[in-house]
Amino acid sequence: xxxxxxxxxxxxxxxxxxxxxxxxxxxxxxxxxxxxxxxxxxxxxxxxxxxxxxxxxxxxxxxxxxxxxxxxxxxxxxxxxxxxxxxxxxxxxxxxxxxxxxxxxxxxxxxxxxxxxxxxxxxxxxxxxxxxxxxxxxxxxxxxxxxxxxxxxxxxxxxxxxxxxxxxxxxxxxxxx
Length: 177
Known about the structure:
Number of domains: 2
Low-confidence stretches: none
Strand content: under 5%
Largest sheet: none
Shape: flat
Oligomer: single chain
């Protein structure tokens, strides 16, 4: 299966993906290459099935994550790969610092949960805004739109990490971990 991830799931190339459809296609493909179907076959066939299952898993993990999907598309279009860019947007750098300070403030607040939840709402709204923008940018296919998509993907990656840190802190505060 040397197909790209979109071909693998028979999806149109683009940022907008219907997640329920992706999950259903993932389950269907996993059934086809499930190890039980290959238990009485040769070692080579079992190895091939395992490779296909791994590729399906990798493709699903990439396409189901908004940041990984954005970087995959950038690579698909030959623009950039994750980790190769440094961010030059000073306004966004300032925003990053403010958001980090807000997370620190939530940690130190007398009643941290409401402060943290407000921050998380802001972060998720900003992420949603960027993802909507990425949908449009990836449909345009111009050099400028793909460069903007690369910049916005970096921003989305930062916000996703911050959201994960917020969630981890919330879990800690609620005694979940």
